[in-house]
């Protein structure tokens, strides 16, 4: 996130070093911006594989979400379910600078897997206006099966614990900042309920990770549980 401190614009856009964007992306996204001050413009992306390109879209239907629709349809559904209304990737989005700067406190350089989540989740929860664009697949994600995302990581268990701690902190903060009654309170309750479901899932993940480590140590032959199999144990 070092680039954030060096930037000067009112909006921030993130692109991974091995990905690329179409030249029109930022300009087209800015067409949907407003004077809200705390908004996120969400596009879609193309997954670039070795022999094919796949367009992938946000689960939430295109539209402009504010007020109650934002609380009920997005904020209350970001955790606790496999298919989120909006991806928690920093990429293919345009953020009001304020949303990123104010939530930098959640960033932890030690987190290698899920690092996007610790800044995108609080930014989404703090957003007062979210736009989901139609089409807009201008971000190109280079899918590499040999990347660390798709391979075994001996430190994954501790990574998950650190990530879980930050997610819980983010949810507690979001609930504390919203009234307990009324429209916003309903969303706060949803976030809290989804957090509880997420905590149960995290517990299963921690147990599965521990089992994977024990199995690896018992094998003593260098065999390791693949990440895909580890995740399958908790699904």
The major β-sheet equals: 7 strands, mixed
Order of helices and strands: HEEHEEEHEHHEHHH
The 3D shape can be described as globular
Q: What proportion strand? A: 15-25%
N- and C-termini, Cα separation: 32 Å
What kind of oligomer do you see?
A: single chain
- The DSSP helix count reads 8
Question: Could you tell me the radius of gyration in angstroms?
Answer: 19 Å
Short description:
The chain is an alpha+beta fold and 235 residues long. Helices cover 42% and strands 17% of the residues. It is globular.
Helices and strands in order:
Blueprint (H helix, E strand, L loop, with lengths): L1 H5 L4 E2 L7 E2 L3 H6 L8 E10 L4 E4 L6 E4 H7 L19 E4 H5 L15 H10 L2 E14 L13 H21 L5 H38 L7 H6 L3
Parallel strand pairs: 3-7
Antiparallel strand pairs: 1-6, 2-7, 3-4, 3-6, 5-7
Helix pairs in contact: 3-7, 5-6, 6-7
How would you characterize the overall build of this protein?
- With 235 residues, this protein is α+β, with helices and mostly antiparallel strands.
- Helix content is 42%, strand content 17%.
- It has helices at 2-6, 25-30, 67-73, 97-101, 117-126, 156-176, 182-219, 227-232, and strands spanning 11-12, 20-21, 39-48, 53-56, 63-66, 93-96, 129-142.
- Residues 181-188 and 215-235 have low confidence and may be disordered.
- The chain is built from eight helices and seven strands; from the N terminus they run αββαβββαβααβααα.
